[in-house]
């Protein structure tokens, strides 16, 4: 054990002794939830708390950023200020400091200078991998494979922890239905159930079952709440939703996260119905901490406490501090509000010491759970750092996850899979040999230009006699963010009109048997602050596409993007389209696995693809309305100039084989509210290749005390079915799948008629009916 730890032990012992004489002050105003608490940890938490002075308590509620990697307007007061505060033990956490050496150095400041030596907790946005980069979360969600999603999060955790960090600000579990919103790339898409199960898988992956294990890190359920419903898809914008939408659509993934034991929550920038989430007491205190009995730590989003001034909800930072702490925001990320104002607010009796203690306990609890009090440097091991990051083993998993995240949208002429011994193949497009874009936004320590490009992936698998031509054709019009550049200050240019490269691209297209055309978006077109009013191919990509298609009909579009795009022209013309998102470090290899048939694609869309941007927000589980759209009533609840339905619906994705669904059977036609129905369905692989299918179960409650969606995903199973084989897949329908947040403000099953569908996408037509009785 190191000298510093030996020094620290007497402090803890003293704390425990003191605890036995001076018990922790009990909150007299409110009863906070205390379920699932570990008594031993609570005893230690209380004993440390009893030693703390007010300034040290407030310090635990302060989180500073390292000055690099700022993800918002920099409010930094400079390094000297931070250093002084660290020495005084007036900082609880740091974000954006990475590497064992830097973390050790920063932790040392606190351990050597501060009075109580309470270790810092270090956080970082590890959204889809640390250095080994996995597909962007939206893409990974297209795998509908909870095991590999968990595995990718656990590898991310292992690499993050090996770098000395203990906390990621992920998963984002904001249901998001608007393709214009740049942050749609960060979550699991438009559906509540899918966000719920994927969010839980990611939390389990990050946290494992023991936070103190050196390979696990604390996760963070964000952004609480409603951020994905930003009006018109403009980032940070107002959210206008009612109470029932909040409970039925937005909160379930968060409730499941709390239940799964996620260590932290982050609140959100937006206001809902006039109240900024950071200052929302109902959300944070009543629902999260009280009703859900959740004992973790709520961190504000970057500067969001101070931003309540701009919202017009707080007069100044002092007012904002009072509102935020009172509402249950425990830790101040980069607003510099708590450190400046909490002490005065306590003295003026505007914030009670019990409220401060409750917040501080949440911070201390997490630090004990992570094992930081036992050894503040336990995550700091240079050997482990060298051995555990960006390993071949991790890259192999990244390739596996990436190939499973690819969605085959169209394959009309069975152009795919391509044989490896073609005479010639043209790889064309601005993304064809891009080694950076596949890393996507929020790539943590993913190294600039480190991904396997499509061209590299293709070259590594084709026959040695196959000629591979390459032409870029056109430039993606947004310059790539270079290492060290702050992407938030990066210019966006959409006005590139240079078509001079198209000619050469057309020439190689003419010579090739098949063209792989890699087009889509730049990595930084989606992500925070990257909302767009148009979702088609920017720049002159469409011109390139049409010019190529004119001379060669065997075109496969390899789409790389972070949001659902308007690809209508391509869908109407080009024979094959492969949705490849931003697939991470192993992108090119994974795409080649699918293109050449080494892997039969099994991904399904976690978001609807529209015919055009005017349909946004677009999602499958809409309400019927009083005038439902139908072939007879085409003017009802639709558009006169565009279809109402999606171009490619939620849950959709093709395979190189075909599946047939039949014989949906229910073991009962009527159940009590707490009863159970067993459903079985036959799925046959009617093609000639083995393949995996995501079998999806949708339910509709026909009449409710509140209007109900036309259908809702309630379960799914991913099954491998051999060519020619038939499998029976079983589901259980129970109250969990039938209940909703009713007009009684409770989760209830209401009696009445229900429809159930099973199929390979949200437009499934194989249907059953049943009735729930009192
Ligand atoms: C702002 C983002 O909204 C949030 O998701 C992120 O975790 C923080 N910045 C920290 O980088």
The name CATH uses for the topology of the largest domain is: TIM Barrel
Strand content: 15-25%
The spatial strand order of the largest sheet comes to 11-16-15-14-12-13
Shape assignment = globular
CATH superfamily of the largest domain: Glycoside hydrolase, family 3, N-terminal domain
Please give the CATH architecture of the largest domain.
Alpha-Beta Barrel
How far apart are the termini? 64 Å
- What is the residue-mean pLDDT, rounded to a whole number? 93
Total domain modules? 4
Largest sheet: 6 strands, mixed
**What small-molecule ligands were found?**
1-deoxynojirimycin
Please provide the count of β strands.
26
CATH class division of the largest domain: Alpha Beta
Structural category: alpha/beta
Number of separate helices: 22
Radius of gyration (CA) equals 27 Å
Instruction: Identify low-pLDDT runs.
Output: 1-34, 68-75
Portion in helices: 25-40%
Enzyme class: hydrolase
Domain Fibronectin type III-like: 693-762
InterPro entries: Cellulose_Degrad_GH3, Fn3-like, GH, Glyco_hydro_3_C, Glyco_hydro_3_C_sf, Glyco_hydro_3_N, Glyco_hydro_3_N_sf, Ig-like_fold
EC number: 3.2.1.21
Give a quick summary of the entry:
The strands form seven sheets. The protein has a six-stranded mixed β-sheet with strand order 11-16-15-14-12-13, sandwiched between helices. It has a five-stranded parallel β-sheet with strand order 4-3-2-1-10. With 774 residues, it is α/β, with parallel strands linked by helices.
């Amino acid at each position: 054990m190191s000298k510093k730890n030996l020094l620290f032990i007497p402090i803890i012992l003293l704390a425990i002794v003191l605890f036995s004489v001076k018990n922790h002050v009990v909150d007299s105003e409110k009863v906070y939830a205390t379920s699932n608490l570990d008594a031993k940890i609570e005893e230690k938490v209380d004993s440390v708390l009893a030693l703390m002075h007010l300034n040290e308590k407030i310090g635990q509620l302060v989180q500073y950023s390292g000055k690099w990697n700022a993800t918002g307007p920099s409010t930094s007061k400079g390094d000297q200020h931070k250093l002084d505060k660290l020495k005084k033990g007036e900082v609880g956490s740091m974000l954006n400091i990475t590497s064992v050496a830097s973390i050790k150095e920063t932790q040392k400041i606190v351990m050597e200078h501060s009075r109580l030596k309470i270790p810092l907790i270090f956080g970082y946005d590890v959204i889809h991998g640390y250095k080994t980069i996995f597909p962007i979360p939206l893409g990974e969600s297209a795998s509908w494979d909870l095991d590999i999603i968990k595995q990718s999060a656990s590898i991310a955790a292992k690499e993050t922890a090996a770098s000395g960090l203990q906390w990621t600000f992920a998963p984002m579990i904001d249901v998001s239905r608007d393709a214009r919103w740049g942050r749609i790339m960060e979550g699991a898409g438009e559906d509540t159930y899918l966000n719920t199960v994927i969010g839980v898988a990611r939390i389990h992956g990050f946290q494992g079952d023991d936070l103190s294990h050196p390979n696990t890190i604390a996760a963070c359920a964000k952004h609480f709440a409603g951020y994905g419903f930003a009006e018109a898809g403009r980032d940070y914008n107002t959210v206008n939703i009612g109470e029932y939408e909040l409970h039925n659509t937005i909160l379930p993934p968060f409730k499941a996260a709390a239940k799964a034991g996620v260590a932290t929550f982050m609140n959100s920038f937006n206001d809902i119905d006039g109240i900024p989430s950071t200052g929302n007491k109902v959300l944070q205190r009543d629902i999260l901490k009280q009703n859900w009995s959740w004992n973790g730590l709520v961190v504000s989003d970057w500067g969001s406490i101070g931003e309540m001034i701009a919202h017009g909800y707080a007069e100044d930072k002092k007012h904002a501090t009072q509102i935020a702490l009172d509402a249950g925001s425990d830790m101040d990320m980069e607003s510099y509000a708590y450190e400046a104002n909490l002490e005065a607010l306590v003295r003026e009796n505007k914030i009670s010491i019990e409220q401060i203690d409750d917040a501080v306990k949440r911070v201390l609890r997490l630090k004990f759970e992570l094992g930081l009090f036992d050894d503040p440097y336990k995550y700091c091991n240079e050997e482990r750092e060298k051995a555990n990051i960006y390993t071949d083993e991790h890259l192999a998993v990244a390739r596996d996850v990436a190939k499973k995240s690819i969605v085959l949208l169209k394959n009309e002429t069975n152009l795919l899979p391509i044989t490896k011994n073609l005479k010639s193949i043209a790889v064309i497009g601005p993304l064809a040999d891009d080694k950076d874009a596949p890393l996507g936004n929020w790539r943590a320590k993913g190294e600039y230009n480190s991904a396997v490009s499509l061209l590299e992936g293709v070259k590594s698998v084709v026959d040695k006699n196959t000629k591979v031509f390459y032409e870029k054709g056109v430039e993606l019009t947004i310059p790539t963010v270079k290492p060290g550049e702050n992407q938030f200050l990066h210019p966006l240019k959409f006005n590139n009109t240079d078509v001079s490269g198209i000619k050469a691209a057309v020439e190689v297209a003419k010579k090739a048997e098949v063209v792989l055309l890699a087009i889509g978006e730049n990595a930084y077109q989606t992500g925070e602050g990257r909302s767009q009013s148009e979702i088609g191919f920017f720049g002159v990509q469409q011109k390139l596409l049409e010019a190529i298609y004119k001379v060669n009909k065997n075109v496969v579009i390899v789409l790389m993007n972070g949001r659902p795009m308007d690809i209508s022209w391509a869908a109407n013309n080009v024979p094959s389209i492969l949705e490849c998102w931003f697939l991470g470090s192993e992108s090119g290899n994974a795409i080649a696995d699918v293109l050449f048939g080494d892997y039969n694609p099994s991904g399904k869309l976690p978001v609807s693809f529209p015919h055009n941007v005017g349909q946004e927000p677009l999602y499958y589980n809409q309400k019927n309305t009083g005038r439902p759209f139908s072939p007879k009533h085409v003017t009802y609840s639709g558009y006169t100039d565009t279809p109402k339905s999606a171009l490619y619906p939620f849950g959709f994705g093709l395979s190189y084989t075909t599946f047939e669904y039949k014989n949906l059977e229910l073991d009962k036609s009527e159940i009590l509210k707490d009863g159970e129905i067993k459903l079985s369905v036959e799925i046959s692989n009617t093609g000639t290749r083995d393949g995996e299918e995501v079998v999806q179960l949708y339910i509709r409650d026909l009449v409710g005390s509140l209007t109900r969606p036309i259908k809702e995903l309630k379960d799914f199973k991913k099954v491998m079915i051999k060519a020619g084989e038939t499998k029976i897949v079983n589901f259980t329908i129970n109250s969990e799948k039938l209940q909703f947040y009713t007009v009684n403000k409770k989760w209830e099953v209401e009696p009445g008629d229900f429809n159930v569908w099973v199929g390979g996408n949200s437009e499934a037509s194989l249907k059953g009916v049943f009735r729930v009785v009192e």
